[in-house]
Amino acid sequence: MTLTSGLGGQLSIDLGALARNWRALDKVSAGALTAAVVKADAYGTGIEMSSKALHAAGARFFFVATPDEGMTVRAALPDAHIFILGGLYPGAANLYIRQNLMPVIGSMAMLEEWLGKCIERNEAYPSAFHFDTGINRLGFRLNEAALVRERIERLGYAPQMVMSHLACADQPSHEKNRTQLALFGSVMAQFPGIPASLANSAALMTGRDYHFQMVRPGIALYGGRAVAGRKNPMGTVVTLHVPILQVTEGRTGESVGYGATYTLNRNSKLAIIAHGYADGFFRSLSGTNQRPGGKVYIRGKLCPVVGRISMDISVIDVTELGSDLPMPGEGAEVFGPHVSVDDQADAAGTIGYEMLTSLKGRYNRNYVGDGRLPE
Questions:
Q1: N or C: which end of the chain has fewer CB within 10 A?
Q2: 311 is in an annotated binding site
Q3: What pLDDT does 277 receive?
């Protein structure tokens, strides 16, 4: 692939694939509403464009982390139902009401502020209640469930939904999943008739026991691996090509990159690509003589990163290409159909979520499709 000269990396977001992923998950979760988690700029894909594509595919319920993200989705989708996972920010109730945003309430302080605003305006504004069943992040403690129920019963208020979050859903056989499921059942018993939500991408894909009335897929929508140790069935959404700046030669015994952490053990052909840690290509993807790093796809082969990744460039060993060497301006695939975000994440010692949400580099974004079914 030859890139347009002078334009740097090219990040392609396949909105059609994003929509197909949502529809596939919606089939798996038949009987439950399938929401879409679009926080963190829709996992690095662009919250406005991706939300519109998911809406075109059929999604009507969206989860974001912050009110600012919620307002962005609201501007793009006037009829969307938007939950703010971070809850009710102090003093922001009027903003939520104006923007028709639903806080995911997880503390007594949040609850009192929200109920106070409902009383002040004489209207039961919608919200969700989040209970911590064992991850120790946001959420009411389990021993607060009865207190919460008694408080809202006195006012005749009911949330739109009760929810919790699994700590080990990516490991389906982990005992903590069953424990949290049982604890969530005890919460639901306190709120009979209220819709419930527990499943993220992994739980959606591995067990109907976790589906309840709404599922909340995130990483799987964007093509990332949700379940550890299983083949990822989701379509590729994100493809990133970066330009090759130069192809040079290195001699046996010479070192590559800062710190001289990689020494060539043969005469080598080296491609210098315009992609570094400032672009989200983590320094932990560097290749040393003791530890292999990441790989990129060039001219039909996976080629290894050698030496430390710099701020703006990385060095790729293309010796195995033989005489079929790339030319300056040609593209190297960093993510895509041949190198997944999870391949890179595994090499970096992290997860695909972090790779995707770090896509803030010097790229030219290109959106493909719009989420609608072809006519």
A1: C
A2: yes
A3: 95
